[in-house]
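Handout, page 2. Input:
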Amino acid sequence: MEFSCVPDCSQCCVDREYFPNKKFGKIGVLIMPEEKEIMEKLAKINKLNIKILPRIGTSEQKDTKLIKILAYQMMGIEKNGNTCPFLDTETGKKSPHGGFPCMIYDQRPLACRTYPLIEENPITLDQKCKFCEENKTADKNLNSEIESLIKIKSKMNTNAPFLWRYATGIGEKEDEFQIRNGWFLEENDLLKD
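Output:
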């Protein structure tokens, strides 16, 4: 079955989730280091305020001052972390499938180009995507998504002894007591195949 966006859906650009758990807060759109400056320039062109936080880092020592950032995350514009800042919810324009349009669609980050793929071997689709939830499968029209996922995974591989995950401090009001902010040390199995 060929993947296509469900009519009128923009859910993947609105809903953000806690990952890997509530302690880390809601995550933003994954931004590779080489994409960070591009996103900042696009925000300036579109007269938008964006918030980009670290996401994953590595270090040779157990010292947060020496962290090399492997990936950033662009946070949503709502207080709870939802809604991509580049999602045009204001003008009344619609995307080809009838949802809210992306202001930077042709320049969107690799992570957006990958969606709804979350793994490439075997191909795994995000079951929170309305198309995937309804159809449970898609085996056509995913070549560019697979290519983007492979690029992301190749940039995230590391042999550094210390892996760090950044807690955003952002989430739903009722979860504030659980959510942390700042760097947390993790095991380095996270990014390896």
